[in-house]
Design goal:
By secondary structure, this protein is an alpha/beta fold. The chain is about 35% helix and about 10% strand. It has a five-stranded parallel β-sheet. A two-stranded antiparallel sheet has the order 2-3. The longest helix is centred in the C-terminal third of the chain and has 15 residues, at about 175-190. It starts with 11 loop residues before the first strand and ends with a helix.
């Protein structure tokens, strides 16, 4: 029996690891700076982990509200090391590291795409087509990732791009983003009956997230043939002018210089 349109559906939340839930760092100088600011530095190998303030409390809340997937582009062994460090410090709720409380996906779940980035390094993309194997409807999926290229094969407003967690510029007491901004926003999304991409398009900016289309323009301009072939399939027609020319043909458009603040024009008119 179909779900009535006025009843919120079960939603899937995909969380990036590095840059959203924690910071993975190799630089000895950066580690010293983080320690000077009062951050706990975890790990005992060449890669160290700085957990985000309120991480455990945040995960406890979202695990109750959503089907959660922690999806990182790191290889499986490195992912395990990071989760072990976080668990040993009490930063993870029970069952997270083992995959019992949520799914843990790594680089093997990503798609490697060549010839996309300006520096020639392959990009590991988190394509929502992977979700179809698990019978997860992309209508009700939201990914939170600080790297716009990771989600460029998905609908633009199916991902939130929050500011990257940088423990070198803030102290643990000042980093309240997870529980004071992101969590209340997610609770509102969870109660909404709107399709996720429509909800995100309207409200992404109120918690300091960036417009994914403008980020892609800045990252991939001029737009290469490979990027064109990917984006042309997924960018809605009304937004193509941002990445292509005014006639919406596959010619690169001039990138905008300013990311306009606030919700889309459509939502501004609606809320006047």
């Amino acid at each position: 029996m179909p779900i009535p349109p006025d009843i919120p559906r079960q939603k899937t939340l995909i969380l990036d690891l590095n840059g959203v839930l924690c910071k993975i760092e190799r630089s000895a100088t950066a580690l010293r700076q983080a320690k000077d600011l009062g951050w706990p530095v975890l790990g005992s190998w060449t890669t160290w982990v700085v957990p985000r303030s309120g991480l455990r409390e945040f995960l406890e809340q979202v695990l109750e509200l959503f089907c959660v997937i922690i999806w990182t582009s790191r290889i499986e062994r490195n992912t395990e090391l990071v989760l072990e460090a976080l668990e040993s410090a009490g930063c993870l709720p029970p069952g997270v590291k083992s995959g019992e409380a949520c799914r843990i996906w790594n680089q093997s779940h990503c798609d490697k795409v060549e010839g996309v980035s300006k520096d020639g390094i392959p990009i590991l993309m988190k394509d929502f087509a992977t979700l179809e194997f698990w019978n997860i409807s992309t209508r009700d999926v939201l990914m939170i990732d600080d790297s716009p290229e990771k989600g460029m094969t998905n609908f633009p407003y199916s991902t939130l791009y929050p500011p990257t967690f940088t423990p070198l510029v803030t102290s643990p007491d000042d980093d309240t983003y997870l529980n004071s901004k992101l969590l209340p926003w997610l609770k509102g999304w969870g109660k909404s009956v709107k399709v996720t991409r429509n909800y995100v398009e309207e409200w992404y900016s109120v918690i300091g997230c960036r417009n994914p289309l403008y980020m892609l323009v800045d990252m991939f301009s001029p737009v290469s043939q490979t990027v064109q072939s990917i984006l042309w399939r997924y960018i809605p027609s009304r937004e193509r002018k941002l990445l292509f020319n005014k006639n919406c043909t596959k010619e690169p458009a001039s990138p905008p210089t300013v990311d306009p603040p606030g919700p889309s024009m459509k939502s501004k008119k609606k809320h006047k």
